[in-house]
Amino acid sequence: MLLHALLVLLAALLPVAIALLLIRAEADQLAHESSDEAAQVVIRQADAILAQAMAVSDHLLPLAGRPCAETAPRLRETSGLLPHLHAVLIAPAHPYYCSGQGAMPRAPLDALLHDALPAESDGHALLVVQDSPIVPGQPALLVVRSQADGRRVLVALDGRYLLNFLGAAAPAERYRLAVTARGHDGALRRGTGGAEAAGTRGRLAYVATIDSQRFPYAVQVGVRASLLAERSARLLHSYAPVIVLCSLGLGLLMRRVLKRQLSMAAEIRRGIARGEFHVQYQPVVALDSGRCVGVEALMRWNRAGMSAVRPDIFFSVAETNHLAVPLTRHLFELVARDLHGRWLPLDFHVGVNITSEHLESPEILDDVARLSQALALQAPRLTLEVTERQVLPGTPAVLEHMRRLRAAGVRLAIDDFGTGHSALAYLERFPVDYLKIDRLFVSAIGTGAVNAPVLDLIIALAARLGVALVAEGIEDASQAAYLRAEGVGFGQGFLFAPPMPADALVAWLESQAAASGGAAPPGHATGPAVVPPLA
Ligand code: C2E
Ligand code: CA
Ligand code: CA
């Protein structure tokens, strides 16, 4: 019951988990898009401001070298019109530079420019400084207009102004901004202050870096993790009704499936008591002669007033509800009743499917002994088929039961060989007589399907280990011919005969025997009536 509740809970939580993953991905995508978008807008605005600073520097360049008393009013006038720009003039061999306030000693400014820019070049350059005589104590972006004769105009863009201005496109509570001049160290940053960086607001979820196509600088826009969390919360809020509905739906569906399983388990118990199960037998033939050498017993369930249930389905329900052993024991009783006293050819094999749980339980020895006892008159060779789809535990109990069964003349087959995960491991650990090649590989013959080479591998493996092969699901003559040519000993499939009830089987066997001229009188059992001791 606890397991069922857990499964229902897991089913209900599944949509929540999927929704959270999708929401996270969508919020991520939004963050990428919005940081790219913000960086583009920032670049456009910064380009416009820089173009203005460049134009100012070009305009003022002819004034460099003129007496400062003459140029200072012009510089003050520029600053008055464009308060975020501070222009100064430098002339070669002058120990002073000229600003709006008048002449200033050049040395501190030269020291700033010295490392960063080659002297006497012609053109514009950009430089980020954290402090300068032009905007003391503040970071600034310097536009340097130089001429080959050594004259220069410096236009300083106040860093605070620039970042505040750009901040309109990328608000500080959502984004972190940095402007860097290409080829130079240093950056103008906003949003990395100590107190802020220490908090969660400081963490970044994504960073977009975009280069300006017009000027040598780049802008970095970082999206704060808090923005991502806020977007995720908003998405979660809007999807919440759908998530709740899906959770509820899946939880209820799982509950119904489990309930149906439980009720099917109860019906299996009732079906056994009411005699709703019967067995069909499918002939297994020797591929070289076409002679029938045995049958596989396959269980059928006709529920009163209901459609038939497939055996793989009711056996899987039986397994999960610990009913596989009682059901197989019932199968043994039905086989014993069906075949008791019937005529069967000499040395006839009867294959029955058992589960690994049954093979591990000590009851298997008694159950098989009882079946052998019931068929003592015909003494067919019993073959127990264990599917490779289930894990067969290599416990001492399983190995001991296998040893004792084989010692008593019971054959063991691995069913559906090649479809499990442990084909080789099985063969190394468990002593078996037959491998039943799954019909998946038989149907691949002649189709060029990816499974086709696996069939050849299985055949080679069996030959090396000296284990006989039975091919399942042979439906046409070309498959039979291929398998025969490859040395596969036995086959089973609609080509030879479908599963049929016991009466039909006996009639079929008699007609086969008559056709080959070796029929024994119906109703007459042949073969030694020896029951091998098992337990
Ligand atoms: P399986 O043991 O591999 O049985 C072979 C299945 O292949 C049978 O299906 C049989 O009818 C089908 N078959 C035989 N020849 C052909 C063919 O030429 N073409 C095709 N397409 N199919 C063919 P069935 O009887 O429906 O059984 C399905 C599965 O259910 C079995 O596979 C087995 O895993 C399980 N099962 C059936 N009866 C029992 C049983 O008594 N005990 C246990 N534990 N499992 C059983
Ligand atoms: Ca089988
Ligand atoms: Ca099989």
From TrEMBL:
Specify the superkingdom. Bacteria
**CDD domains given for it?**
EAL (cd01948)
- Topology versus the membrane, per the UniProt entry? Multi-pass membrane protein
Catalytic activity as recorded in UniProt: 3',3'-c-di-GMP + H2O = 5'-phosphoguanylyl(3'->5')guanosine + H(+)
Localization, per the record, is:
Cell membrane
Locate the transmembrane regions by residue number: 236-254
State the coiled-coil residue ranges: none
Q: Which residues form the EAL domain?
A: 261-513
Give the keywords, sorted: c-di-GMP, Cell membrane, Hydrolase, Membrane, Transmembrane, Transmembrane helix
Q: What is its EC number?
A: 3.1.4.52
PROSITE patterns given in the database record: EAL (PS50883)
Cell membrane found in the keyword field: yes
Q: Which top class of enzyme applies to this chain?
A: hydrolase
Report what the protein is called.
cyclic-guanylate-specific phosphodiesterase
The source organism is Cupriavidus malaysiensis
